[in-house]
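Example record for the data management plan.
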Amino acid sequence: MITVTPSAATHIKASAKQSNTLGMPLRIAVMKMDNGDFHYALGFDDSAREGDEIFTSEGIDIVTAPTSLSLLTGTVIDYVQLEEGKEEVIFINPNDPSQQNNKK
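Corresponding structural encoding:
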């Protein structure tokens, strides 16, 4: 399961409205790079593909391919201020090795 925080949901809905993609699901993908790092991608996509998994969190329909699902299970998508005046969508993913190394 993939979870969207209320802050991220507000940002995603505003982005969808601005880009005239309101009502389209948010497709999320992750690819494990050769060095083990995860590379994330997201965007609005209204074309269903065979085997897609569909979730709803905070009113956001989320679609992911089966190849990404095992790498995304348990992920939380948030929208946070990283530094003064700079907000960003972040992925809090328990499967991402780079995030596990930061745990104490």
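Summary line stored alongside the record: Residues 1 and 74 are 6 Å apart (CA to CA).
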